[in-house]
Design brief:
Layout lengths: L2 H14 L15 H13 L5 E5 L7 H16 L3 E5 L14 E3 L2 E3 L1 H16 L1
Parallel strand pairs: 1-2
Antiparallel strand pairs: 3-4
Helix pairs in contact: 1-2
Length: 125
């Protein structure tokens, strides 16, 4: 791939994650949320069939987080497989399948909800 084509793809992805005005900046000049969006763009640069996203909205403000969720949903609608590990309940609105893990084990939705409610009640005491 030619250098110009690589640059064009990178600019397109940076625009997609809302960072077109930060193209010339170094990582130390970016906020944590901006660095997170760069990581998403970097993961997409080679157009993978499967995308593994570990807390993709973790350091993002609300609007940027929703934009990333929408982008992941668009990629899924385009036929990509997206696997997300997250604590962000907003991601449930975009998920086609959900697997809950509790203490390293797969549990049902009901078991997960019961355990989290129980923990919340214990913390209040």
């Amino acid at each position: 791939m030619r250098r110009a084509e690589r640059y064009e793809r990178a600019v397109k992805l940076l625009k997609r994650v809302g960072l077109e005005n930060r193209i010339g900046h170094r990582p130390t000049e970016l906020s944590g949320g901006q660095q997170q969006r760069v990581a998403v763009a970097r993961a997409l640069i080679n157009d993978p069939e499967i995308l593994l996203a570990d807390e993709p909205t973790g350091n993002l403000d609300t609007a940027s987080g929703i934009a990333i969720m929408q982008m992941l949903d668009e990629l899924h609608q385009a036929g990509k497989t997206i696997l997300v590990a997250t604590h962000d309940p907003r991601m449930l609105n975009f998920a086609s399948d959900t697997i809950y893990l509790l203490d390293g084990k797969r549990v049902s939705t009901e078991e997960y909800q019961k355990a989290t409610l129980q923990l919340a009640n214990e913390v209040k005491r």
